[in-house]
Amino acid sequence: MDFDITVLMARQTVKSRIRKKPGPKPTGKGEPVLVRLQPDLLKPLDHWIADQPTPKPSRPDAVRKALTDWLIGLGMLPIEPSSDHQISESADMAGRTLDALADPSASLDDRAQRKRQLVKGPKELRDRQSAKGMHKR
User: Fold this and answer.
1) DSSP at 58
2) pTM check: above 0.70
3) Interatomic CA distance for residues 66 and 50, integer angstroms
4) What proportions of the chain, in percent to the nearest 5, are helix, strand and coil?
């Protein structure tokens, strides 16, 4: 006796999760701008990126940083406020550097006065920053 047995089974769906490669951090919603850079600008940009600590910024991040710094320097963009800890650390580092560079022949009072003037910055810059509503560092 010959028997033909047909077994009907439900079709199995195999779901494979395709992992996306990690990309750059999202920069928020903004308008994309395509900029073509010639080798005379690209080479120093790549050199600057290579000099940065790990994790190294991408080219778009480096261009955003350069543009932000330039606009802050022109006074067209406000300085981003730093945390109190960052401000304190920066002031301490500046103070230690100024102490190391101080003129040893000057009196302690003269050195302290010079240090205060350097840390505060020139009056013209402070006035300009306060007039534009910029954060003082």
Assistant:
1) P
2) no
3) 15
4) 50, 0, 50
Structure tokens at 72: 């802050």
Reported as a pLDDT band with limits 50, 70 and 90, residue 137 is very low
pLDDT for 136 beyond 50: no
- The residue assigned the tokens 């006035």 is 127
- Give me 106's structure tokens: 């000057």
Exposure letters 59-70 (e unless 16+ CB within 10 A, then b): eebbbeeeeeee
My answer on whether omega of the bond before 55 falls inside 30° of 0, hence cis, is yes
- Give the pLDDT confidence of 29-57 residue by residue, as tens digits: 888 888 999 999 999 999 999 999 989 99
Look up residue 81 and give its amino acid.
P
Domain coordinates of the chain in residue numbers? Answer: 38-77, 81-137
Contacts of residue 28, Cβ cutoff 8 Å, sequence gap at least 6: none
